[in-house]
Fold each of these.
Amino acid sequence: MKSLNLLLLLIALGVVIPASSQSNAPDYKNIYLNARKALLYPAAYKEEGFLTFFESWMAVDRNNAYNSILRNSDQPSEELLLALNKLKTSYEALTQIHKYHEVALDIWEGHQTIPVPGGREDNSLDSADAWLADDPGFRPFLMDYRLKNPSEAKGTIITIPSIRGAYDELTLIAKTFNELGFNVFALQGRMNTVNRRYYGLQLDAQRAVRYLRFHAKELGIDPEKIVSIGGSKGNFTHIMTYEYFDKTPVQYAAEVLKKPLKDYVCDAIDTIPSHVSALIYSYGSFLLGKDFSAQTIRNSHIYSKEMYEAGYRYPHMVVLAGNYDHMDIPTLPVVITALSDYNKMSDRLYEIGYEVHISDKVEHGFGSGYKYPNMKNLWDAVGVFLEMNLGK
């Protein structure tokens, strides 16, 4: 009774009571987890309000906020509580129009066990370092953003984001390329932010290419006009399209990673080559490294007369960067020189088409570029490049 009287006195005096101490305080942990789920499936919701929801999510899910929310390791700051309330409001304003399974293509269909090099992923909500961790039971999937008449598309694009959900790297880019006449599939892959090896993400991206090629007829797409777009760490996956394009997950894990797979048996999809016609390095060309050269291209596994005669070739490339991106900008001269030197070689097997775009006052992680007015024509230019080079 005394505690109740004290509580009433504090309220009368206008004393602010921390949300965590109020009996009717919102269940922020549950709100956060529900928002995580919704973030993965933007195609299941009306587009109206989803960008606001995504931005509210980004305001929460950074700076180790998940530790305070999921583990109650410390009292959430006033700033975090404010962000959580905005997330709650924006999440509750969403209108769901599809069930999750209706907008997701399970790329590892037929497999109860998803291939994990070494047998175990460190990335789970149980890890204190697992920012953007994989929720229990998570299975990588593709969201389907095909045109009404997929067979009439100029090509098919797979978008591979840098963070979980990444609405501006997935749905907004899909919308842009749909308007340009392309089918798009958005990959929600594994995000191992604990050891930052991204082996699971690489296998997911490779499987996505193979899945689309395997199901090309029923999906109504051209299997030889597939393009991969990476965002930041999403570009880690590109190597699976030219260096290891003919290796099954079992071969890749054992021969390349030296981390054999456990409890996984390859199927017919795993034997399909994962090559693509073009790669788009969106703020991720730094992953090619300072030693990237014309000889790097010629030494790649996909590059040989035999491979070329069999229908395989090193993909065309587009490199996109902002001039405020201190990771990407230093590498661009190396990439440009390598591609230029290669195309000048008299004994090259074929020419590699490439473009490099640097946008002024643009930072790393620009996604679809909706925040930058000087980037309105950027993706249009990429669309023209792809239309010129796909199928060549």
Amino acid sequence: MKKKVVDLPRVQRALAALDKLVAENPDRFGGEGPRWADNLEELDRLTMSAPAKQRVLEYRQRLRERGYRVQTINMPPEAHERLRRLAQQTNLAYGELVAVALEKYEKEATP
């Protein structure tokens, strides 16, 4: 026995109930107000995602605008593993963790 994919009578009853609800409350459902089409530019930006390469470039640009700089640090595998684990535990980016560590080191090293 095949299962129905759509229960058409149930859908028709639901649509009829919605129609009745709208007819009984025209002020709530038919009034003037913001509509989805008023925000087409934002909807396009959210739904029509840019290619990954473009998103990465825009992300890096936003970081530069906030004053972030790219820095390469060579570290032993054990230190990288600790950094990875701390980033996962604290939910911070590697750069933010390094900044926190530097602040803490400076506070402790300064007499």
Amino acid sequence: MLEKSQTETTRKRQGGFPHWIVFVAFRYIRKKAGRSQTSSVLPVLGIAVGVLALTVIIAVMNGFQLGFIESILEVSSYHIRIDNFPAASSGVLERIEQVEGVSAVSPFREVKGLLRRNAEGRGGRPILAVLRALPDDVLSKDEGLASKIEIMRGQFNLTEKNAILLGTEAAARLGARTGDKIEFISIAGILPAVNSLTPAAAGALPTDGAESVFVIAGLFNTGFYEYDASWAFVNIDAAADYSDSEYFTVGIKLRNRWNLDAPLERINAVVKEAGLDNEAALRVSTWRDYNQAFFGALRTEKLMMFVLVGLIFIVVALNIFQGQRRIVLEKKDEICLLRSVGAGELDIRGVFLFNGLLIGLAGSAAGMIPALLIATHIKQFFTFIETLVNFALNIAAFVSGANGEYFSVFSPAVFYIKEIPSRVIPGEVALIFLFGLLSASVSAWAASKKVSSIRPMEVTRYE
């Protein structure tokens, strides 16, 4: 009879997946009690907490990092840049605009200098600023730049040569408003004057360099403090007096900034056909070259956050490993019975593997659903948290008679943000879900190795 049973079991196994494995795995989950029940509930909760925490944290980190990256790429560095481009060859820009994958081409000049309010008696303390000189139609051509610049006062109008757009923080430092006059002094002009100052005149501000007076046409905000505190935009012709008028820099935006190789190759071909590759100073570079250190630091920061929060899965995996080993010992008699009727060692281990898969699937799903809800409604979530905390603080202040304080997770006094950013990347969500699933499955499979040490004859000898 035993041989017949083993033969039938072998035949069923050869015919396909042994469905009794699923049945036994579900039975172990349904029939658990006491410590065994706890050994399944706690891992599910642990995986759910890990998935929830990691998904929300990474989404918020993506919001901050991508916000910084996009501000840098759209406002400052562009996707591809051509430095020291001859102004006499401006007709080549039209050919570059026709390159497949290119969305916008903008020539610009950049000058550093001092800005100060041109008030009565030349009052006001100067600030160090970067003057980005652009064509007057730049916003109509560059949608990326237009999306990142928010005009708070006035308008973005560079048609006048003496018009200037100032960052909101820079205007606050200068005490300036729209319509005020701003004086710009090029550093290239004042450095010789600084070097020639006598000790008696060391405290004076030299004015021997190129100097111009601009009228503030508008105040802008990018959400990036460095630009809002020290940047200004003027007409591209207005900066010709401070730099070499024979050259400018070309900023190129791509439809897909991740696809650099093909557009870069075509742009280099256009430059070579125009004979500009003979220009010694001309250099073509990409956003990865300009921001390699900064973006590398952001990537390392995100990786370390992934690892630190991912330690939750290691703790849960150890819990699952110990729980499954205990179940193997508790179910020793049933395992021996299954082995006696023809179940192989891999079949028995498959029961525990499927058990681990169920735990990982339940925990990952239980954590991912609320995580996505929170990540996509992050503002409402933090508002709810702040309301609860402030309610508790007000009660404590009322009981103690002290003055209550307002709690804010991301206070504008500390963080230069208007609202908490959040970006959910589908690939990362899938990876986090997979971590939760695999942490339980691998632990259960490793714990089931104990099955190989169980000898049915020894266990059933005295039964």
